[in-house]
Amino acid sequence: MNRLILIIAALLFCNFWSLQSQTPKELFRESLEKIARQNIHLEIELESTNRRGNSRVREMDVFTSNIDDVRYVKVELLSPDEVKGVKIVTSGSEENRGTVEIFMPATGRVQRLRSYDNPTVMGSEIPLDQLNFDAYKNYGFSMETREMLNGLEHHKLKLESTDDEGWFYVWISVDEVLLNRIERFNAAGVKSMVTEMSDYHVVSHHSGALFPGEIQSTNLQSNEQSVMRIRSVQPILNPSKEDYTL
């Protein structure tokens, strides 16, 4: 019996030590790996509120896939009627990086725009890039503290740009290792963006991967807010480049 107690104690100690020895970078990567980010189809209701307090609600389908190590995103607007049928495509390929393609059903034409020429293009509020680990490759990671957030204990991490472009604070739940809050600061130390994720659900055919049921984002510089409610998440089983061609 004493030997059994010693073995159990040793196993508990080893498990505790392995958790404690996890680096902030590993912890952050684990929280992102739990989220389904590739080869998924999202049905979304997006409520946006501008600085004057005026709100509008749009419904859209969002498709995102990784094909030959290139990330593709397509947004198709479903409502309201004045934007129904508008389609927007972006990709990380060399020839298309930094551009968006927009199909306007009223004209039947496709426009190509530099992404920085129209930063408020419809669907740009969807914070998919914040869930991509590669977006943080030029950041250093450090553990700040533990804090309570919405009644749960969280790790608070700091992700600081090595290019002096600012930093992020992120909150990851201690018990489930879920990413629940992101705060972005610019190079001057001014908080510019807050994103909160909640109500995680399991995505079918994605090996237990999750996706938040609601994502709230606040742009503190423009004083604009968006609430993204995910009605469903479906896997894309056989993605192809043709799916992202307008």
Order of helices and strands: HHEEEEEEEEEEEEE
Provide the CATH top-level class: Mainly Beta
Low confidence ranges: 6-19, 116-120
Question: What is the count of helical runs?
Answer: 2
Rg over CA atoms, rounded to whole Å, is: 20 Å
The total number of structural domains is 1
- Tell me what the CATH architecture is: Clam
CATH fold-type name: outer membrane lipoprotein receptor (LolB), chain A
Distance between the termini: 69 Å
The CATH superfamily title = Lipoprotein localisation LolA/LolB/LppX
Q: What is the residue-averaged pLDDT?
A: 85
Write down the overall geometry: globular
Which band does the percent of strand residues land in? over 45%
Could you say which structural class the secondary elements and strand pairing correspond to? mainly beta
Strand order of the largest sheet: 6-5-4-3-2-1-13-12-11-10-9-8-7
Beta strand count: 13
Secondary structure: helix percent: 10-25%
Largest sheet: 13 strands, antiparallel
Describe this structure in words.
The protein has a single domain (25-237), classed as outer membrane lipoprotein receptor (LolB), chain A, CATH 2.50.20.10. The protein has a 13-stranded antiparallel sheet, with helices on one face. It is mainly beta and 246 residues long. The relative contact order is 0.18. The protein is built from 2 helices and 13 strands; from the N terminus they run ααβββββββββββββ. The model is unreliable at 6-19 and 116-120 (pLDDT under 50). The chain is globular. A hairpin with a 2-residue loop joins strand 7 (139-149) and strand 8 (152-161). 12% of the residues lie in helices and 48% in strands.
